[in-house]
Design brief:
1 helix; Porin
Length: about 230
């Protein structure tokens, strides 16, 4: 998998290696910066950013090879954390129990997309396109028990992990609204078609041995969450 990642980064680098970082490249007299040779830095978030304990962001660079076409290379990250505590009261007993579940998840994705803009001389422009992607994900969960509420010593009972990687294609469609000709707002939606490999493990801490191990491969076609962001052209 590391070899695929290196190849992917090399291809993206070949496309963007000749980008000169110069604000003078942008023609301030035009309505937009959608023109041959223009470059942009993009920051995006998706609709799930406002869910508790969730952080999702995409950072991309884009270069126009013609007025209507460009390549976009991006890194997206998704990080989440969850913690749930349950208490049990037994009316017919003096004993009370409690349990706690904790988990975290990380997903990292590299993507390279070809984007096409049918109209480039308007402040509001439509774009669509797609390209390959590669991603890695890790999920980890733990379960604890507290036999007596008078004690703060949580006893770890169970833990599980999932590691996976995937190769696929992504498709995007969206709109770009230029506030000024070198700053724009973006809203987009898309889909993914991915082939994934995952490895699941779970361990029962009472006997300190893996009670479950599984390797799986799958193909999925999913819709992406809505994304909004900003573009800065230079």
């Amino acid at each position: 998998m590391k070899m695929y990642i290196k190849i992917f980064i090399c291809l993206a680098t070949l496309i963007f290696i000749n980008i000169p970082i110069s604000a003078q490249d942008v023609n301030r007299d035009t309505l937009t910066s959608l023109s041959k040779g223009s470059k942009a830095l993009l920051f995006e978030i998706d609709q799930n950013l406002y869910i508790d304990s969730y952080i999702g962001a995409i950072i991309s660079v884009k270069k126009h090879f013609t007025d209507h076409s460009s390549f976009r290379f991006g890194l997206s990250t998704t990080i989440s954390y969850s913690s749930e505590e349950n208490k049990y009261i037994y009316e017919d007993s003096w004993t009370n129990d409690a349990s706690k579940n904790e988990g975290n998840s990380q997903i990292f994705t590299l993507s390279l997309e070809y984007l096409y803009y049918p109209i480039t001389n308007k402040k509001l422009s439509l774009f669509f396109g797609g390209g390959p992607s590669i991603s890695y994900n890790h999920t980890f969960t733990k379960q604890y028990d507290l036999e007596n509420w008078n004690s703060n010593d949580w006893d770890e009972q169970y833990k599980s992990s999932r590691n996976g990687c995937s190769l696929g294609l992504i498709g995007s469609i969206g709109i770009e609204l230029f506030v000024v000709n070198y700053i724009s707002l973006i809203a987009e939606y898309g889909f993914t078609a991915t082939y994934s490999y995952t490895e699941d493990k779970s361990k029962n801490m009472s006997n300190n041995a893996y009670s479950y191990e599984k390797e799986s491969k799958s193909f999925r076609l999913n819709s992406q969450s809505k994304k909004v962001g900003l573009s800065f052209y230079f």
